[in-house]
Backbone:
Protein backbone atom coordinates (compact mmCIF):
# COMPACT_ATOMS: atom_id res chain seq x y z
CA UNK A 1 0.00 0.00 0.00
CA UNK A 2 1.39 3.38 -1.03
CA UNK A 3 -0.06 6.88 -1.21
CA UNK A 4 -1.43 6.42 -4.74
CA UNK A 5 -3.34 3.26 -3.84
CA UNK A 6 -4.59 4.91 -0.65
CA UNK A 7 -5.84 7.90 -2.66
CA UNK A 8 -7.54 5.57 -5.15
CA UNK A 9 -9.20 3.66 -2.30
CA UNK A 10 -10.48 6.84 -0.67
CA UNK A 11 -11.69 8.11 -4.04
CA UNK A 12 -13.47 4.85 -4.93
CA UNK A 13 -14.89 4.52 -1.44
CA UNK A 14 -16.18 8.10 -1.42
CA UNK A 15 -17.13 9.19 -4.93
CA UNK A 16 -17.65 5.67 -6.28
CA UNK A 17 -19.94 4.65 -3.42
CA UNK A 18 -21.85 7.95 -3.66
CA UNK A 19 -22.34 7.42 -7.40
CA UNK A 20 -23.54 3.83 -6.81
CA UNK A 21 -26.01 5.09 -4.18
CA UNK A 22 -27.28 7.77 -6.57
CA UNK A 23 -27.73 5.26 -9.40
CA UNK A 24 -29.71 2.79 -7.28
CA UNK A 25 -32.07 5.19 -5.45
CA UNK A 26 -34.36 8.11 -6.23
CA UNK A 27 -36.14 9.37 -9.36
CA UNK A 28 -34.82 8.69 -12.90
CA UNK A 29 -33.41 12.23 -13.28
CA UNK A 30 -31.17 11.68 -10.25
CA UNK A 31 -30.15 8.19 -11.37
CA UNK A 32 -29.12 9.35 -14.82
CA UNK A 33 -26.97 12.14 -13.34
CA UNK A 34 -25.30 9.68 -10.98
CA UNK A 35 -24.73 7.27 -13.88
CA UNK A 36 -22.97 10.07 -15.76
CA UNK A 37 -20.82 10.99 -12.75
CA UNK A 38 -19.77 7.35 -12.25
CA UNK A 39 -17.26 7.76 -15.10
CA UNK A 40 -15.75 10.84 -13.43
CA UNK A 41 -15.50 8.95 -10.14
CA UNK A 42 -13.99 5.68 -11.41
CA UNK A 43 -11.65 6.95 -14.17
CA UNK A 44 -9.34 8.98 -11.83
CA UNK A 45 -9.28 5.99 -9.46
CA UNK A 46 -8.05 3.75 -12.30
CA UNK A 47 -5.33 6.29 -13.12
CA UNK A 48 -4.25 6.38 -9.46
CA UNK A 49 -4.21 2.57 -9.26
CA UNK A 50 -2.09 2.32 -12.43
CA UNK A 51 0.45 4.67 -10.83
CA UNK A 52 0.23 2.91 -7.46
CA UNK A 53 0.93 -0.54 -8.90
CA UNK A 54 3.55 0.79 -11.33
CA UNK A 55 1.76 -0.69 -14.35
CA UNK A 56 1.50 2.00 -17.07
CA UNK A 57 -0.57 -0.30 -19.29
CA UNK A 58 -3.43 -0.15 -16.78
CA UNK A 59 -3.85 3.49 -17.88
CA UNK A 60 -5.53 2.13 -21.04
CA UNK A 61 -8.53 1.10 -18.92
CA UNK A 62 -8.98 4.72 -17.81
CA UNK A 63 -8.60 5.89 -21.43
CA UNK A 64 -11.31 3.48 -22.57
CA UNK A 65 -13.63 4.52 -19.75
CA UNK A 66 -13.09 8.24 -20.41
CA UNK A 67 -13.92 7.60 -24.08
CA UNK A 68 -16.94 5.30 -23.69
CA UNK A 69 -18.53 6.66 -20.50
CA UNK A 70 -19.80 9.96 -21.95
CA UNK A 71 -20.91 8.13 -25.11
CA UNK A 72 -23.04 5.84 -22.93
CA UNK A 73 -24.56 8.87 -21.20
CA UNK A 74 -25.41 10.40 -24.57
CA UNK A 75 -27.25 7.19 -25.47
CA UNK A 76 -29.23 7.45 -22.21
CA UNK A 77 -29.95 11.14 -22.87
CA UNK A 78 -31.30 10.23 -26.31
CA UNK A 79 -33.33 7.19 -25.21
CA UNK A 80 -34.80 8.87 -22.12
CA UNK A 81 -35.30 12.30 -23.72
CA UNK A 82 -39.10 12.03 -23.47
CA UNK A 83 -39.01 11.02 -19.78
CA UNK A 84 -36.43 13.68 -18.91
CA UNK A 85 -37.96 16.52 -20.95
CA UNK A 86 -39.98 17.81 -17.98
CA UNK A 87 -37.30 18.17 -15.31
CA UNK A 88 -34.03 18.74 -17.28
CA UNK A 89 -31.73 16.90 -14.84
CA UNK A 90 -28.64 18.89 -13.96
CA UNK A 91 -26.22 19.08 -11.04
CA UNK A 92 -23.62 21.60 -12.10
CA UNK A 93 -21.88 21.88 -8.71
CA UNK A 94 -21.29 18.12 -8.69
CA UNK A 95 -20.32 18.14 -12.36
CA UNK A 96 -17.67 20.83 -11.86
CA UNK A 97 -16.46 19.14 -8.66
CA UNK A 98 -15.99 15.90 -10.61
CA UNK A 99 -14.16 17.80 -13.36
CA UNK A 100 -11.88 19.40 -10.75
CA UNK A 101 -11.19 15.98 -9.23
CA UNK A 102 -10.20 14.58 -12.63
CA UNK A 103 -7.99 17.59 -13.34
CA UNK A 104 -6.30 17.35 -9.92
CA UNK A 105 -5.52 13.65 -10.39
CA UNK A 106 -4.16 14.15 -13.92
CA UNK A 107 -1.97 17.08 -12.82
CA UNK A 108 -0.66 15.12 -9.83
CA UNK A 109 0.25 12.13 -12.05
CA UNK A 110 1.88 14.40 -14.64
CA UNK A 111 4.03 16.02 -11.94
CA UNK A 112 4.94 12.63 -10.44
CA UNK A 113 5.99 11.01 -13.73
CA UNK A 114 8.84 11.85 -16.08
CA UNK A 115 7.79 14.21 -18.88
CA UNK A 116 7.33 12.37 -22.15
CA UNK A 117 4.75 10.51 -24.21
CA UNK A 118 3.11 9.15 -21.04
CA UNK A 119 2.47 12.72 -19.89
CA UNK A 120 0.77 13.58 -23.19
CA UNK A 121 -1.32 10.41 -22.90
CA UNK A 122 -2.42 11.45 -19.41
CA UNK A 123 -3.35 14.92 -20.68
CA UNK A 124 -5.35 13.35 -23.53
CA UNK A 125 -7.22 11.18 -21.01
CA UNK A 126 -7.86 14.21 -18.79
CA UNK A 127 -9.20 16.25 -21.72
CA UNK A 128 -11.46 13.36 -22.81
CA UNK A 129 -12.69 12.83 -19.24
CA UNK A 130 -13.47 16.47 -18.44
CA UNK A 131 -14.72 17.44 -21.90
CA UNK A 132 -16.86 14.31 -22.18
CA UNK A 133 -18.27 14.85 -18.71
CA UNK A 134 -19.25 18.46 -19.44
CA UNK A 135 -20.79 17.63 -22.83
CA UNK A 136 -22.74 14.66 -21.44
CA UNK A 137 -23.99 16.75 -18.49
CA UNK A 138 -25.15 19.46 -20.87
CA UNK A 139 -26.92 16.87 -23.02
CA UNK A 140 -28.73 15.51 -19.94
CA UNK A 141 -29.76 19.02 -18.91
CA UNK A 142 -31.38 19.47 -22.33
CA UNK A 143 -28.69 21.78 -23.70
CA UNK A 144 -28.73 20.09 -27.11
CA UNK A 145 -32.48 19.62 -27.37
CA UNK A 146 -32.57 21.60 -30.59
CA UNK A 147 -30.21 19.13 -32.29
CA UNK A 148 -32.02 16.41 -34.29
CA UNK A 149 -34.16 14.81 -31.61
CA UNK A 150 -32.01 15.76 -28.59
CA UNK B 1 -14.03 27.60 -62.82
CA UNK B 2 -10.79 25.66 -62.87
CA UNK B 3 -9.34 28.04 -60.32
CA UNK B 4 -12.28 27.31 -58.00
CA UNK B 5 -11.81 23.54 -58.49
CA UNK B 6 -8.11 23.80 -57.78
CA UNK B 7 -8.84 25.79 -54.65
CA UNK B 8 -11.37 23.19 -53.45
CA UNK B 9 -8.90 20.38 -54.09
CA UNK B 10 -6.20 22.25 -52.21
CA UNK B 11 -8.54 22.83 -49.26
CA UNK B 12 -9.54 19.15 -49.21
CA UNK B 13 -5.89 18.06 -49.32
CA UNK B 14 -5.06 20.46 -46.51
CA UNK B 15 -7.88 19.21 -44.35
CA UNK B 16 -6.91 15.56 -44.95
CA UNK B 17 -3.30 16.37 -44.11
CA UNK B 18 -4.34 18.11 -40.87
CA UNK B 19 -6.50 15.12 -39.81
CA UNK B 20 -3.70 12.71 -40.74
CA UNK B 21 -1.11 14.64 -38.72
CA UNK B 22 -3.37 14.84 -35.67
CA UNK B 23 -4.33 11.15 -35.80
CA UNK B 24 -0.75 9.98 -36.42
CA UNK B 25 0.42 12.08 -33.46
CA UNK B 26 -2.31 10.53 -31.29
CA UNK B 27 -1.17 7.05 -32.37
CA UNK B 28 2.45 7.81 -31.47
CA UNK B 29 1.36 9.08 -28.05
CA UNK B 30 -0.81 6.08 -27.20
CA UNK B 31 1.48 3.17 -28.19
CA UNK B 32 3.95 1.70 -25.71
CA UNK B 33 7.09 1.28 -27.86
CA UNK B 34 7.89 3.34 -30.94
CA UNK B 35 9.51 1.34 -33.76
CA UNK B 36 9.37 1.19 -37.57
CA UNK B 37 6.45 -1.25 -37.76
CA UNK B 38 4.37 0.89 -35.40
CA UNK B 39 5.18 3.98 -37.46
CA UNK B 40 4.05 2.28 -40.70
CA UNK B 41 0.86 0.86 -39.16
CA UNK B 42 0.12 4.18 -37.44
CA UNK B 43 0.58 6.19 -40.64
CA UNK B 44 -1.73 3.80 -42.53
CA UNK B 45 -4.43 3.85 -39.85
CA UNK B 46 -4.17 7.64 -39.62
CA UNK B 47 -4.65 7.88 -43.41
CA UNK B 48 -7.83 5.76 -43.26
CA UNK B 49 -8.97 7.73 -40.21
CA UNK B 50 -8.36 11.04 -41.98
CA UNK B 51 -10.65 10.01 -44.87
CA UNK B 52 -13.36 8.91 -42.41
CA UNK B 53 -12.96 12.06 -40.31
CA UNK B 54 -13.37 14.34 -43.33
CA UNK B 55 -16.41 12.35 -44.49
CA UNK B 56 -17.92 12.62 -41.01
CA UNK B 57 -17.16 16.33 -40.76
CA UNK B 58 -18.80 16.96 -44.14
CA UNK B 59 -21.83 14.90 -43.13
CA UNK B 60 -22.63 17.14 -40.16
CA UNK B 61 -21.67 20.62 -41.41
CA UNK B 62 -24.85 21.16 -43.46
CA UNK B 63 -26.49 22.56 -40.31
Residues:
Amino acid sequence: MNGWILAATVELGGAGAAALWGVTTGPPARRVIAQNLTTSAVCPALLLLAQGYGRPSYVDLALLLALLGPVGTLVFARLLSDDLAGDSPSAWALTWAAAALGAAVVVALCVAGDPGRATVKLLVIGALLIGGNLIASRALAGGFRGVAGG
Amino acid sequence: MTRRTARAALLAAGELLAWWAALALLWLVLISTVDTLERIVGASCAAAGALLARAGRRAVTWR
User: Anything to note?
Assistant: The two ends of chain B are 26 Å apart (CA to CA). The mean pLDDT of chain B is 91. Chain B is about 85% helix and 0% strand.
